[in-house]
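Chapter review: from sequence to fold.
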Amino acid sequence: MAKKKTLSSEYKKARANLLKKIRRAEKKGYVFDEGIVPKIPKRPTLASINRLKSISKNLYKKAVKLDIETGEIIPGEESRKAERSAAARKAAETRAKKQAPQISIIDTIIERLQLIPETRVFRKKGTRAYYMNTGEKRNELINIIYRRIDEEGEKVVNAAYITAQGEIFAYIDETAHESDGDSVERSFVYLATILKGSALSFNEAENISEMAEFYEN
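The token string follows.
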């Protein structure tokens, strides 16, 4: 009696697994013969259980799949091999992307800052041209970035810069291309404040600009 119960339980389990596998395949577009799943016998035997397992193992040999693009009917095994190849390629591409070196927004900002020239020439109406040491200001901005990384950690700083990247890159462009000296001066101060994430210290403000309203209290 115990053996009959065990065989009955094993048969039900094998049949349920087979039906589940067929339903998953059908959702992907595979088509099977109507009689692929045997009728439930009155007395399950080891042979009937093994038959279900064999059908499950060789399921795609008994299936076909319609190619929606071409209208071609493809043997199930052939289609299954193509699916596995595509999945393997996708997995390989995903691994390659994860392994590829990632350039952080911090690196991009520093690269853009390094494009700011060493000096820029400006002229106010009715006065002679004057030179601005933009290289010194640029270097101070880079120092501010590194000091913030030391204090808060690269991950936190990177996230903050991603949020503010629109403003950061706009001010960098102004410092390099704006023709009005006063506007460039202000852009350096705004940029320094954003990169630091707080008000500038006296020394930082002095290195960036003489505009006292941007000093720390």
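Two observations follow directly from the output. The helical segments are 2-27, 46-57, 76-99, 105-113, 134-152, 154-177, 181-196, 202-208. Residues 171 and 191 are 6 Å apart (CA to CA).
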